[in-house]
Design a protein that fits this description.
Guanine Nucleotide Dissociation Inhibitor, domain 2; FAD/NAD(P)-binding domain; 490 residues; six-stranded mixed beta sheet; flavoprotein; seven-stranded mixed beta sheet; 3 domains; 28% helix; 23 strands
């Protein structure tokens, strides 16, 4: 087992604002670092899990938010072991790249045929892309060793630099430009990369090169999710961290004192109302219209505060007082509407014959009304061959899909359900983005990581980073936080 190198003698009292996967992981890591000595309040005005959510349709449950995890994602892999959860592997599926009138590429049920077709259409470039992605993953994975040694970073660029000196520059270059420099063909960028950035982020290869690389990695064949639903990870992590969950909406964070030995913060909150649910389950401390005026404001002092929710103006209305810098959190979040449909695909829309089978349709044309259409599997079903499963599809689109549009995609619709997310940052390389993890000593911003790339594992890495920063601050020891093996390994 791992024990903290420097166990906090004094009981520290910390607040975490946001009960999604980032906030829950931060609570867990902070408790681990303090050897179980941390008192932690987690504020969540919506649902624990944030953008991880399952919903039922016809008696089966499906992922509506963050759904797949990459095999090299070490923290998510560790969490399910620690929490006693099971992996559910993605089923092999047949996909097609669709330009709006025909398929530019279609998988074959024979893998060797698919590989031959890929090579035929894209040439050696497909291998160049794969090799570049593998190299990036190898460099990315360096972060785990550094964090285990207790290394923490005050901003996103430093964190990327520690993975690889070539990474920070990727934030200022489009995916398209970056891949062209690597010698990858225009055809792959316009088709394969366009399809994965649209499906994963609702955006084109104009997104910065780092998030583009995350998108390409997400096209791996060995993806997995959590049996029973991904949101169990944050739910169980909060329990493991023995955090107090407060169903409250944070309105203000104030720096009370900066004097040593410790700075002090005050968090003001009001009870979360039903109105906060008007955003269809997107809690995450979202803005809502209930009058705060008559609301019963509660103030609580803390030694450290971790903001684990996005701070852009479209996602929150938290105000900061008496902070050293007057921070501006530029940018906006991309709207992604997820529509769940139990029905049959309308094959003629895609130029498919009656006998053609296809599970996933990825547009390569950003002007279509949808970003992806894919067959889903009940979160509780492990076997891929389960023939009795109803056909349930998830449609991702940048706006609500009209009835007419749905009828274009589907022949018969038995039932449907809509989730409206502001899912991840809108990545625009010409706009400034905020990547500071430390707003002040003792006050941390986990979701700054989303501007590098938004994924469950990215939130977990940021959670470990801000937990380390908070721990070093609370112990007045910049070298604190190394998890050393207690077993004598000699």
């Amino acid at each position: 087992g791992l024990t903290p190198h420097n166990i906090l003698q004094l009981r520290s009292f910390s607040a975490i604002i946001g009960g999604g996967v980032g906030g829950a992981a931060a609570a867990y890591f902070l408790q681990e670092l303090t050897g179980g000595n941390a008192l932690i309040d987690v504020y969540e005005s919506g649902y624990v899990g944030g953008r991880l959510a399952t919903t039922d349709l016809g008696g089966s449950y499906y992922e509506m938010g963050g759904s797949v995890i990459h095999p090299s994602n070490a923290y998510m892999g560790d969490f399910i072991k620690t929490l006693g959860l099971e992996k559910r592997m993605e089923c092999p599926s047949l996909a097609g790249l669709f330009d709006g009138s025909s398929f530019v590429f279609r998988d074959s049920s024979w893998q060797v045929v698919t590989l031959a077709k890929l090579f035929w259409r894209y040439g050696w470039s497909i291998y160049t892309l794969r090799a570049a992605n593998q190299q990036m993953l190898d460099q990315f994975n360096r972060i785990y060793k550094l964090q285990k040694k207790g290394q923490a970073f005050t901003n996103g660029e430093q964190l990327l630099e520690a993975m690889s000196p070539s990474f920070p520059a990727m934030l200022h270059m489009s995916t398209r430009e970056h891949l062209l420099q690597l010698g990858i063909s225009q055809a792959i960028i316009d088709e394969v990369v366009m399809a994965v950035t649209l499906a994963n982020y609702g955006q084109t290869p104009d997104v910065h090169a780092f998030v583009g690389a995350i998108s390409v990695a997400a096209a791996s064949p060995d993806l997995w999710s959590v049996k029973g639903g991904n949101k169990q990870v944050p739910e169980l992590l909060l329990g493991k961290a023995r955090a107090s969950l407060l169903r409250r909406h944070v309105t203000d964070v104030t720096v009370i004192s900066r004097s040593l030995p410790l700075s002090l913060f005050q968090v003001d909150s009001v009870e979360a109302t039903e109105a906060s649910d008007s955003l269809q389950r997107e809690g995450r401390n979202d803005i809502y219209s209930s009058a705060h005026v008559q609301a019963d404001v509660r103030s609580q002092p803390y030694d450290a505060v971790i903001v684990a929710a996005p701070l852009t103006h479209d996602k929150t209305d938290i105000k900061f007082h008496n902070v050293t810098h007057n921070y501006n959190f530029p940018g906006r979040y991309e709207r992604i509407v997820a529509t769940l449909v139990r029905g049959k695909l309308r094959k003629e829309t895609f130029g498919l014959s009656k006998d053609d089978s296809l599970d996933e349709i990825f547009p390569v044309n950003p002007d279509l009304f949808y970003n992806a259409v894919g067959l889903l599997k009940d979160v509780n079903v492990e076997k891929c061959s389960d023939a009795h499963m109803p056909d349930v599809f998830k449609v991702f689109s940048p706006a609500h899909v009209t009835e007419e549009q749905l009828n274009l995609l589907f022949d018969e619709i038995y039932e449907s359900k809509v989730f409206d997310w502001r899912a991840f940052p809108h990545y625009n390389i010409s706009e400034p983005h905020f990547t500071e993890f430390e707003l002040e000593p003792g006050l941390y911003y986990l979701n700054a990581i989303e501007w590098l790339g938004s994924a469950m594992e990215m939130s977990a890495i940021a959670a470990k980073n801000v937990a380390l920063l908070a721990f070093k601050h609370l112990t007045h020891d910049s070298s604190a936080g190394s998890l050393v093996e207690t077993k004598d390994e000699l």
